[in-house]
């Protein structure tokens, strides 16, 4: 049986590295990513695997972020559900709000994953961004 926590951690590390080729096989074809409303995506939304991989590849071009980090906090697993609390930091190539190029965007995130048959089938993100203000 696949270790759901190890699978989710591997996926987060692939996303962190902008590595779509490493992330793709960890996701089921019917994967759904739900992003709750936040400062970046005010209306929230739902994306399938193809859209997620396209976005990850675009991110890998490093036109918006030169790098990113997920500082993982608590990870709670119950069967095939894994909940991860994390701090996300993104190093900006271009200004965002009052954050300058070279600055760091920060979000506090709760990610809820569903795993089935050794693949992630659902991810729901609650992203709370810090103000886009220079410190």
Automatic annotation (TrEMBL):
Pfam family for this entry, one: SnoaL_2
Bilayer-crossing regions: none
InterPro entries linked: NTF2-like_dom_sf, SnoaL-like
Domain SnoaL-like: 8-122
Protein's recorded name: Nuclear transport factor 2 family protein
Originating organism: Devosia salina
